[in-house]
Design a protein that fits this description.
The chain is α+β, with helices and mostly antiparallel strands. Helix content is 42%, strand content 18%. The strands form seven sheets. It has a six-stranded antiparallel beta sheet with strand order 1-2-28-27-26-25, with no helix packed on it. Strands 20, 21, 22, 23 and 24 form a five-stranded antiparallel beta sheet that branches. A four-stranded antiparallel beta sheet has the order 3-31-30-29.
Length: 1049
């Protein structure tokens, strides 16, 4: 494999031969023999025969993908968009075997670093192990002496060309190693204050410049010099821990393709303290470019930093991702033409977890680990979680010992020590799209799978539907974290399409193979219902009907159930116009299957959506006739033969039981006259006028083709009128709307009107409603400003006499309603109103009378109409209410109605009127008061009025008097005898009219109660007057009591 990336294959996982290179075990065995050996508890990791780096699993259960017997758990929501297994997780067997080989001694592995083809691992004994691309131990840097002096390795960094390794130690020292020779180049002991551990040491893109961060929270720049063969290191403090402890640093390191990016000249460095983020430039001079405070978060949350070059609007610039807690922030860093660094906030990413590790795996995808050691792959643009894995079994190494600086006495702040509980900075290393995770007993590598591998993982588990869904997302360019698809979109679609064809064949073969051979037919049908529609759907999406109708169908017909499910599944796609043409064999099978299973409605829906060239016309027409598939029959005649008349000829005799066909015929005629195809679409433009004329000629035929001697004239119009007069006239009305300057059409219009009058007038076969409907239709046509129709006006008078005939008691309501509609049309239809009113009264058409009285504003006469009409007598109260409450009526008109209602001769009306009044038929209670007052106090009608329900009405008035006219209250109580004492007392008490209450109590015989009420009133008045007297004395005013001669004794 290429040396630029640690790409693993099967061969790389063989345990390397260690005859020549030293093993960690051999190195550690050189230490004191008296120390007790370390016994590995879980020895199964050594069983490398069971490890398979390329096995895969995308289920939400356990996965053997890593080759790790502990199985990482993958979770995927199958209801969401299918992403498959996004990450390839592999156990680094060679490195893990070397780690396990240290069983002779309690060695702890604290950190890992990977660059290009090198992985470096630090240990608790101060050793740095360097592995090559074959996972062979190439170098073991450090000795027993340095380990004892410096303590554990606490930080590692490899420069970009893999020539140098920096090691930071728990006791504060830093060493630099030559990775080519394994030679120690520098030992730095004075780069930062003593007594603090190195938390981070990192190269920048400049090989002579590095930075380090110690447990005191300070950050230092390390500048490496070599003068006359002498190596040195100059240290400069960039940030003092006394101003806020920094616990994470991340220099911007450009990948090889962006080494010449203008931003690299600034040597940008991101630093995360416990309270804020800082971005500074080390070159050309030290400068702070940005500070960003955290939002409120858990004090134990670990700050994270990660740089990535990201294409944004056709340019590539670095983005800094940082977080502390559950929110990831993104800052776009861009160099302006003026040389200024501009930092732009981007959309945040909110997660419901505490993040302890943050890494980019490519320019669109982040990999996060939370405090529960759940790994999440997140697509940054959509903020969608693509995959979740459980890393608990990896047993990540944490850096708590170094954050607490235990090797130097634990002299760190409580805040930094708290953050260190979850710090695993040195256990995760990313480079070139790969992540290495260091566990206590093993090392693991993660990388994005290429698109084929993700699909194959699903196929391996026989998840064909998910595999097709994922493949289609690759085809359409909507998939996330895509690796391995290059070239122009057309070529990419071709490559993915070929893969999908393979999957379709595999899915079909699998379905046939797994079909239950015995059992209920419903089980077999359900089995294929889960498969066949998917096959059809993706064949249509790929525009491969040839594949569907030939190879796939030829395999499915071998199973009768599969064949039936396939043919039935076509319906939804045909009706949705996704499939418009069937091959002749398929069409033949579809007709036979639908006809044989009684699926005639489905067959008709399919036929009217299919291209007629795919139909066997003779066969289809025969099936349609036999099964009364009128829509399909019309469609076939229209589309295949341009014959629009034959369907009407054979359908123009609908019986009462054939309502469906009659309705279809009316709609069909309407469509033909409007230029629309039936049941859907449009008639070809070159045929629109021809079809319209053909339909008119059909309608006005004097006789049918095979007429008998007794056939009446104009049979087609006559039939349609008898079937549904109103709807047929509506069809004509809509058609006439389109007749403007078409001379031929206007002639047809007049001809049809003449025929209608000839057929319907003076014809006892038509009801008054039908005749009235005709004249209403004609009245509306004549009322149009551009009307060209001619109709004899005497016919309307004839219709009026017909409808108002007093000798005909049949269809009374129907005849009145028809005449009312005719009058409401107005326009050219003018009748003598006096004659019309006389006819209406004689025929007891009270609605007609109301219509005429309304025009003359004779509202009192309208009340008489309601009273005389037995069907509408109860509606009079709504009428009165609307007239009294609504604007538009003058006070004089309302007074006339009011007087009419209060007339002595209308006692029964008034009774009901007042009851309705009680239930708020008027606008307000004040209106109710006015009406009741007018009733009870008008001249000659006070206490003597004898009305039904007098008690209720008097008590209602009593309450209204309390509210609106208390000065009349005592007079009303003294003169009226039609109220109940108990109810009246409650009413006056409710409104606090004490004099009236006392009067009622005395009338009831409760003299003591009446006296008590009056005494309470007197006391309140006395207290009020005394208060006024005191106020008067204070203000120097004359005595109120004196001026009014009150007797206060």
């Amino acid at each position: 494999k290429s040396q630029k990336g640690l790409l693993i294959d099967d061969k790389e996982f063989d345990i390397p031969q260690v005859d020549t290179p030293p093993t960690l075990e051999s190195i550690l065995n050189e230490l004191e023999d008296e120390e007790e050996p370390f016994v590995l508890e879980d020895t199964c990791v050594l069983n490398t025969d069971n490890m398979d780096a390329h096995s895969c699993d995308t289920s939400s259960l356990a996965s053997s993908d890593s080759g790790d017997p502990t199985h990482l758990k993958r979770t995927m929501d199958l209801n969401a968009t299918v992403h498959g297994s996004v990450l390839r997780h592999s156990l680094l067997k060679g490195i893990s075997a070397q780690i396990v080989s240290a069983a002779v001694r309690p060695v702890h592995f604290f950190l890992v670093q990977t660059v290009a083809g090198v992985i470096a691992v630090g240990t608790s004994h101060g050793l740095a192990l360097v592995f090559d691309t074959n996972q062979a131990l190439r170098l073991c840097l450090g000795t027993k002496a340095t380990g004892a002096e410096f303590g554990a390795v606490s930080a590692l960094s490899i420069n970009h060309d893999c020539s140098r390794l920096l090691c930071g130690f728990a006791k504060g020292q830093i060493t630099m190693w030559d990775l080519a020779s394994g030679k120690l180049l520098r030992t730095i002991t004075d780069a930062h204050p003593p007594g603090t551990a190195i938390l981070h040491v990192k190269f920048t893109d400049d090989p002579t410049l590095a930075v380090c961060n110690d447990s005191g929270g300070s950050v230092f720049e390390l500048a490496f010099r070599r003068v006359m063969g002498m190596r040195s290191c100059d240290s400069r403090c960039l940030f003092s821990g006394s101003k806020g402890e920094v616990c994470c640093v991340e220099p911007l390191r450009a990948p090889p393709d962006f080494r010449d990016h203008p931003i690299t000249h600034y040597s940008l460095l991101a630093m995360a303290s416990l309270t804020k983020i800082l971005v500074i430039g080390l070159k050309p001079s030290l400068k702070v470019w940005m500070t960003f405070p955290y939002s409120k978060s858990d004090p134990s949350s670990v700050p994270q930093l990660a740089w990535q070059f990201v294409p944004v609007q056709k340019t590539v610039n670095p983005i800094l991702a940082f977080c502390k807690g559950d929110t990831v922030h993104f800052l776009l860093v861009r160099k302006e033409e003026t040389g200024t660094i501009h930092v732009i906030k981007q959309k945040q990413l909110h997660l419901s977890c505490d993040i302890i590790s943050l890494s980019w795996i490519n320019s669109r995808t982040l990999v996060l680990v939370d405090s529960h050691e759940k790994l999440q792959v997140v697509d940054r643009p959509s903020q969608e979680v693509l995959e979740t894995l459980d890393l608990e079994q990896v047993q990540l190494v944490y850096n708590s010992r170094h954050f607490k600086s235990l090797a130097t006495g634990g002299n760190v702040s409580q805040a930094l020590a708290l953050v260190g509980e979850k710090a695993c900075y040195q256990s995760v290393s990313s480079y070139a799209g790969q992540l290495v995770y260091l566990g206590t007993k093993s090392a693991h590598i993660m990388a994005l799978r290429n698109w084929r591998e993700r699909i194959d993982c699903l196929l391996k588990q026989e998840h064909f539907v998910e595999a097709l869904s994922l493949a289609w997302s690759f085809h359409e360019g909507t998939a996330k974290a895509v690796v391995g698809l290059f070239g122009d979109p057309v070529k990419r679609k071709g490559v993915v399409g070929d893969k999908m064809v393979e999957i379709l064949f595999q899915f079909a073969e699998h379905a046939l193979k797994k079909c239950p051979e015995q059992g209920k037919i419903q089980v077999m049908e359900q089995h294929f219902h889960d498969v066949v529609p998917v096959l059809v759907d993706y064949c249509l999406l790929l525009k491969r009907t040839d594949l569907m109708f030939n190879q796939l169908y030829s395999r499915l017909v071998e199973n009768t159930v599969a064949k039936g499910v396939f043919l039935e599944s076509l319906e939804s796609y045909i009706v949705a116009d996704r499939l418009g043409h069937l091959t002749t064999p398929i069409m033949k099978d579809l007709l036979a299957h639908y006809h044989g299973n009684g699926m005639m409605d489905s067959l008709e829906r399919c036929i009217v959506h299919l291209d007629v060239t795919s139909l066997d016309i003779q066969q289809v027409v025969q099936v349609c006739w036999e099964n009364q598939l009128y829509d399909a029959m019309i469609y076939v005649f229209n589309s295949s033969m341009n014959d629009y008349i034959t369907p009407m000829e054979v359908s123009a005799s609908p019986k009462d039981e054939e309502v469906v066909m009659g309705n279809k015929l009316l709609v069909y005629i309407s469509c033909c006259l409007a230029g629309r195809a039936y049941p859907l679409g449009d008639i070809p433009e070159d045929l629109v006028v021809q079809v319209k004329n053909q339909v008119f000629e059909f309608l006005i035929r004097l006789h049918s083709a095979d007429s008998l001697e007794e056939e009446e004239v104009f049979p087609f119009i006559r039939t349609l009128l008898h079937f549904d007069t109103r709807e047929f006239l509506n069809v004509l009305a809509m058609t006439f709307e389109d007749f403007k300057n078409d001379k031929q059409a206007l002639e047809y219009q007049q001809r049809i009107v003449d025929i209608l009058l000839q057929v319907m007038v003076d014809n006892p076969d038509f009801t008054p409603s039908q005749v009235g409907g005709l004249f209403t239709f004609l009245a509306r046509q004549l009322a149009k400003p551009d009307n060209t129709l001619f109709v004899n006006r005497k016919l309307f008078d004839q219709v009026l006499e017909f409808l108002c005939c007093p000798d005909d008691d049949s269809r009374h309501t129907e005849r009145q309603q028809v005449l009312l509609e005719l009058l409401q049309v107005g326009g050219v239809v003018q009748f003598n109103e006096e004659r019309l009113l006389a006819l209406a009264e004689n025929a007891k058409f009270y609605q007609i009378c109301e219509f005429l009285y309304e025009k003359k504003h004779l509202y009192d006469r309208i009340i008489d109409c309601y009273l005389r009409d037995p069907l509408r007598k109860g509606e009079i109260f709504n009428y009165i209410h609307n007239l009294m409450a609504m604007p538009g009526y003058s006070p004089e008109e309302k007074q006339i109605v009011k007087d009419k209602g209060l007339d002595n001769s209308a006692t029964s009306l008034l009774h009901f009127f007042l009851i309705c009044l009680l239930f708020s038929l008027f606008v307000s209670t004040f209106s109710s008061f006015n009406v009741l007052s007018a009733l009870f106090f008008r001249e000659g009608h006070h206490s003597g009025t004898n009305l039904p329900l007098e008690r209720d009405l008097h008590e209602l008035l009593l309450g209204l008097l309390c509210r609106f006219a208390p000065q009349q209250l005592l007079s009303f109580l003294q003169t009226s005898q039609h109220y109940r004492l108990e109810e009246a007392i409650q009413i006056t008490q409710k409104y606090h009219h004490n004099e009236a209450t006392a009067y009622l109590l005395e009338k009831k015989g409760d003299v003591h109660g009446a006296f008590a009420v009056l005494l309470e009133v007197a006391i309140k008045r006395l207290q009020s007057n005394q208060s006024l007297e005191i106020l008067s004395e204070h203000l120097g005013l004359p005595s109120i009591f004196a001026s009014r001669n009150y007797n206060t004794s």
